[in-house]
Amino acid sequence: MQTECSPTLFEFEAVEGRRVEARFDGGEITSDAGALLLGKLDRDLGLLDRFAACFRDRRDPRLVEHEVATLVGQRVIGIALGYEDLIDHDELRHDRVFHVLAGKLTAWRSDCAPVAGKSTLNRLEHGGHTGKYHKIDHDPAQIAALFVDQYLSSHDKPPRRIVLDLDVTDDPVHGDQEGGWFHGHYDCHCYLPLYVFCGDHLLAAKLRPGDAGPSEGALEEVQRIVGRIRAAWPRVQITLRGDSAFSTDELMGWCEEHGVDYVFGLARNERLEAVLAPDLARAAARCAATGEAAREYRDFAYQTVRSWRRPRRVVGKAEQLPGRANPRFVVTSLPRDRIPARRLYEREYCARGDMENRIKEQQLDLFADRTSTATMPANQLRLWFASLAYVLLAELRRRALRHRQFATATVGTIRLKLLKIAALVRVSVRRVYFALNSSCPYKDDFALAYAYLG
Description:
Blueprint: E1 10-15, E2 18-22, E3 29-30, H1 36-45, H2 47-52, E4 55-57, H3 68-80, H4 89-92, H5 96-102, H6 118-125, E5 136-138, H7 140-153, E6 161-168, E7 171-172, E8 181-183, E9 188-191, E10 194-198, E11 201-206, H8 218-232, E12 237-242, H9 249-257, E13 261-265, H10 270-290, E14 294-302, E15 312-321, E16 324-325, E17 328-332, H11 341-349, H12 354-366, H13 376-400, H14 411-419, E18 423-427, E19 432-436, H15 443-453
Parallel strand pairs: 6-12, 12-13
Antiparallel strand pairs: 1-2, 3-18, 4-5, 6-10, 7-9, 8-9, 10-11, 13-17, 14-15, 15-16, 15-17, 18-19
């Protein structure tokens, strides 16, 4: 279906005596033909259908043009392609790529497109509200479980050991959204979503109000995720990893009681720094002699005055940088004979920094911080839409791009290089044909990804 476009003619600088003109009148052309790879991937995963099964449709079936599976798939694919706003879909509903991915080339009503516009999608996001138009509800527990189930299904056999990374970030709000509070550390009104990753697998994205404590809700998420993993993989060794916000007696005590290891940062104080003073003095002497950073490590038992019920193993890093000292501490349940102090800090704990790259992909590439609706439940659903888009693109990277230049690329780079491919669309009785851009520089990567998904 050709969209109604402005007849405005755009004139540019002439080239070799010829006028250069442009107009939005190309008709059946798409800029997102690479998204066909996502459709091919999802047919194997069944991820969007399982996501759609988490919704309950209370609309009159006789009047429904767009099924929930169509709406959910359209929203997730739209975010994956870089369309964060619902208003974008008033034009995208005419794009043949979205029709093909929805498995629906025509609408049964003459005044509708095969996929939905902004108003219908808006009612999907605000499901659960009372009112005449809000008749699609979702099950939060079922959606939360979907991420863990997808992680489990992505493995042919259980791994011997996994590390779950926990982190909290800020999600600024710019209106009067429910749950948006001023946070002194981030110096803005915000939400504080909690993320749980295992490598590049997203296991949880929980939206929390801006006044939530640093580790609030972490234990409940850990209990849910660990319980689901252990039900499928009873022998897997699980280690939790996070910054000092998670070194609470409640969370560490639960881990110790349930056979889960942990490596958490530990906020420094005078008692900890006193223990590390001799090591820091030696590091300072080496730094002064060489002019380069020097590090020493100390392994010791430590217990807080009031908050911890028992002593725990702490590793201190006495680091002297040119001009300043930088002592750091971690607390862990891993025994000394299994992993020495230096290796624990440098290989186990510092590796958690990669999780921040995954959060950046969520927020910078997939608009997970586009939580601008009025209510917390609607904003949580928006966060889940962005999270599903991440899972889909991460699976594409893992399954189809593992031996090429995009094996470690961000999802934003994958979208730009492999999904944003222009194509002329021809629709006949027998086929829908996408004539892809002949000068696409990544056609070989596209072909190999298609072969891997075959």
